[in-house]
């Protein structure tokens, strides 16, 4: 009898242990939070649905390890269709201003962005070297020397043109040299508040303040002129400072500010470096105006358009022997053609080459593997 009781107790204990093991295994195997290590998270909870109802993300992320011409390369790719209504894609500047530098992860967080890569080239204080337009508002003019990546309702494309800016007043057409740039003698420059709180003038200037196409004031000053939010300031520098008086510009006059070519409403634009691929063929030059020689093995950031119209943003690491050597410009061009890119241009590279996905730095930047503050970037938001 005693032995039977012992057997019964042992059997009950075994059943309890097995039950706990099955419960634990079931939670591990079937938990919705369990994911395969190294696999990209390409699912999205749709608003208004339960947590168990997921949809594929409209943005695809890939991390690829390649050996190209005997050199190991770590490559990070983001792809999406700009015509997908769930995706919002645009440039962003550090602190939403022409000048300055900010971490890419902070720009993402401030804009509520899912992903980002660093943008184009910039001057010493972070001001872009070419055209930037966000949500249809031009912030800096194009140079006519480099390709501009443009996205609108029709999709994505590259164009190269010179921005023609002018002001109309009483049948007079006054050409404006540039937009949101430091003014020099004989310059006429158009400003808005993205340039800062003043025109940062260092030479004599006469400036007109424009509110909703009406001149509200004409200011003659040897120093800076204030820029109020939502208003335009047009500054006539040095020898041109007497031009407003000669033209009879005064408070209350109506003026029209024109920008050509006209690109419509809500477009996005960012001037890039050299074209690497055009019409499905590699067109990599030996040198780029901003990056210099393209024969070095460096970290690189690229933006392109695939044959199916999708936008591709790519970051390849470099300058890290044993991990990722970096590609030459020629190797990058050939690689882009191989993966189905129709047109592509280079962005800033080196230690600035970075990709953020869902709040996380995915690549390993060449400067100690940490983020380097950038002047501008491309962000992707998921609605």
Automatic annotation (TrEMBL):
Residues 205-380 form the Phosphodiester glycosidase domain. Keywords: Membrane, Transmembrane, Transmembrane helix. Pfam families: NAGPA. InterPro entries: NAGPA (IPR018711). The chain crosses the membrane at residues 12-30. This is Exopolysaccharide biosynthesis protein.
